[in-house]
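REQUEST
  id: r-88c1
  op: predict_structure
  target: Methionyl-tRNA formyltransferase
  payload:
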Amino acid sequence: MKIAFFGTPEPSAKLLQALLQEPEIQVQFVVTNPDRPKGRSKTPIPSPVKDIAISANLPVFQYESIKKEKEEALQTFSKFDAELYVVFAYGSILPKEIFSHPKFGSINLHGSILPDLRGASPVQTSLWKGYTKTGISIQYLGEKMDEGDIISIQEVEIDLEDDTGTLMEKITQAGIQSLIPLLKGPRAITFEASPQDHSNATYCTKIQAEDRVLDLKLSAEELHNRIRALSPDLGGYCSFRGKRLILWKTRPVDFSETTIESGKLKRMDKKALIFQCGDGRFLEILSVQPENKNRMTVADFMNGFRISDEDRFE
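RESPONSE
  id: r-88c1
  status: 200
  body:
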C-alpha cells in the first residue's frame, strides 16, 4: 500500500522506521511539525520523524498551521499517489479537506482504548488515574477529535513501575504490531470499522504547569500515579528546605508509622529514603532533582544533603 505519514515525536519516528522496513508498504512522503528551538543556543532542531525521513530520502513537508495552509498542502500532496494517510502523534488537527483526500481516507493511532480518554494526553492520564490496562486504537479520522470509527484495538497492561516513557514504548510497539499487518497486501476497499459508543466517551487534556505541583496530602497511590504520569519529561515537584525539588521516580512501600505527617522523611538505610503521604502510607524515593542540580539517585541526594529524619517535603 502507498501511504503518507504524519507524525512528530520519538514514538512516531519508531513507527515510521518500522513501516520503512516493510517492502509492501511504500511511504510516499512525510509531514511533521516545523523545527523547534532547543537548548541554550535556541538552535532549531528537526523532529525525530524528520530525521528518519531525511535518512530514508523521503520528501518532508512542514506547516506552522496545516489548517490555515490546507490549500497549499493539498496542492503539494496531490502530486503523490498515496492511497492512505497514517497519523500518529502529529501534533496538529487535520482539516477534512486533508484527511478525506486519499483514496482510503486517513487513519490515526490513539494511545487509549477508545472511546475512553479521547484527547491530548491519554498515556499520561491513564497513569494519573491509576489504570492497570490501556491500549492502542486505530481509527478513521473524522471531523471531531478521536470520534472516528474503530478499525482495531490492542490492549496493553500497565505495571506499577511504568511511567509515561515506558508505557508509551509499550503502546508504540502494540501500534506497530497492529498497523503493519493492516497495511500489507493489496486493498480494493476501505478497512472494516465499527462506530464508537459516544455515550461512554471520556476526555483528557494537555498536562498544565500547575499539574506538576504535588499535593502531599494525597494518598501514596495517588502521589505515585501522578509522579509516574509526569515522568520522564516533566516531573512532579514539591518544596525541600525552601527550594524546588523534582520527584522523578517513586515506589510504594509497606512501613508502619503511628503519626501521620504528610511529607515527613525517614531514612531506612544509607541508600533508602521514604516519605509519608496523606493516608499515612509511604513512598520510597528513587530519583530526584534538587533546584539547579542534575537528576540524581536517592543515595547521592542523601549524601549530598545529609538528610535526617527531621527533614520533610512541603
